[in-house]
Amino acid sequence: xxxxxxxxxxxxxxxxxxxxxxxxxxxxxxxxxxxxxxxxxxxxxxxxxxxxxxxxxxxxxxxxxxxxxxxxxxxxxxxxxxxxxxxxxxxxxxxxxxxxxxxxxxxxxxxxxxxxxxxxxxxxxxxxxxxxxxxxxxxxxxxxxxxxxxxxxxxxxxxxxxxxxxxxxxxxxxxxxxxxxxxxxxxxxxxxxxxxxxxxxxxxxxxxxxxxxxxxxxxxxxxxxxxxxxxxxxxxxxxxxxxxxxxxxxxxxxxxxxxxxxxxxxxxxxxxxxxxxxxxxxxxxxxxxxxxxxxxxxxxxxxxxxxxxxxxxxxxxxxxxxxxxxxxxxxxxxxxxxxxxxxxxxxxxxxxxxxxxxxxxxxxxxxxxxxxxxxxxxxxxxxxxxxxxxxxxxxxxxxxxxxxxxxxxxxxxxxxxxxxxxxxxxxxxxxxxxxxxxxxxxxxxxxxxxxxxxxxxxxxxxxxxxxxxxxxxxxxxxxxxxxxxxxxxxxxxxxxxxxxxxxxxxxxxxxxxxxxxxxxxxxxxxxxxxxxxxxxxxxxxxxxxxxxxxxxxxxxxxxxxxxxxxxxxxxxxxxxxx
DNA sequence: GCCGTTTTCGGCCCGACTGTTTTCAGTCG
Length: 578
Prior knowledge:
Blueprint: H1 9-25, H2 30-45, H3 50-56, H4 67-79, H5 83-91, H6 94-100, H7 107-117, H8 122-130, H9 133-136, H10 141-158, E1 165-166, H11 167-182, E2 187-192, H12 194-197, E3 202-203, E4 205-212, H13 215-223, E5 228-235, E6 238-243, E7 248-253, H14 259-267, H15 270-281, E8 285-288, E9 291-294, E10 299-301, H16 306-312, E11 347-348, H17 362-371, E12 376-382, H18 394-409, E13 415-423, H19 434-439, E14 442-446, H20 455-464, E15 470-471, H21 489-499, E16 502-506, H22 516-524, E17 529-532, H23 544-553, H24 567-572
Parallel strand pairs: 4-7, 11-12, 12-13, 13-14, 14-15, 15-16, 16-17
Antiparallel strand pairs: 1-3, 2-4, 5-6, 6-7, 8-9, 9-10
This protein binds one DNA strand through helix 2, helix 4, helix 7, helix 10 and helix 15.
């Protein structure tokens, strides 16, 4: 008997996604297919282990998972497979899934190509296009054939590139485009909507919405922008284009009276809008980007700003970061949390200098922090066994402490503090002697190596250490493609709560670790979070911005974050109130 | 397949765009 590791939420979500896709190709009704996709979304967004809920018999408490899926997931855990999926895999060629997952090709047309022409893969589709049989197929035609050829080419091109763009890059392009359109004489209001406005970790494309005197002129200016590589389609009300950075952009232009409806609609998320519309529909109200239609009276309410959209529906406006259908639609007036802002942070508690792998000296980092309005800064270079070069021996750390103290004496109204980002070793041990750790003002403990070696137990051991203040990047994920190491986050949250250890939201845009789900679970458990930059140079002190984005998506207020406090107040919150 | 202060059966967000159509299906966001 071989021990089988429980599948992660991401793996379970992928299985549900595959079931949905294969059922769709098999001709199942759309709502059943949607049920699988909804369930996949729900699993992906769950903070704790879905496998554990299945084992506990409580997984049907997750909205979107009912008795049938519970049974399928139980099979998956116990046997490693789901009979229905095994059958579907035998029936539906994998190449069809690949085809339906290309943008512009759906299950219906892929199925027809398979039934009529035997097309079962991208290569087979290329061949069918080449010999003209696609164009002759009823319901397709020459124009469709040309379009499908373009879809295949685009998919081949995209396969070599990351599919989603991390938020900083997306905002850089999106805000520049927005500002360009705002400067156009014809435009009135231009806003970036979509997942970029919601400050998600990454975005698939950009949504720009606008009002203008002369919509056609604004569309023309957009098409001529230096950021735009190719315009896929354009009309009097907008255009769809791709940028040189490989990011697609949608521009939509509406009359001013409808701007609020459009901004609300294109800010999303899809889950938020579906939930909002479903609830409205039960009251005889139909909501769309065109307006809010009261079916009984036939009145169509258009809103020039977004607050009015929510008010018309009897709902409370919530910040875009909350719009994920995670409870925000049930908030009454006065219940919306006052989300933390960058200006609330008073110090930075995790960053590097030239003592280890940073690019700025201790003095340069302190100066950069002062320029950003910080009140305190802890130098937390890597420790003795960092393993990637630039390690800091115990003696070097002692000299660093001295240097920090000397620089601090020269600084007025600012506290420069001595710390370290200590490695959590392969058995949970730390790589400095305890008496040296006790001398430090602040200790971050992080896993950097041996990811397969029970990181949960090692991190819990670090929480138990009397000198450890903060667990750094607790899950180790690296966006877009290095998954978290196999770590039991609820267990770590419990250990942090028990021991009075803080948990990090690392602001590096590739980390944002803890993520928004885990950070919200930590808050709910009463654990204080720390938002820091993990800066490796003066300019990356600004990375706290991305940590704030995750914190806001996790519903955090200033009170939930330790470094919104003065250093004196924060120090009193350390273990033993040192 | 899920779900329920109008439902345990009969619904499931809504509109734009495209291409093939003679009134609509497929796909997307």
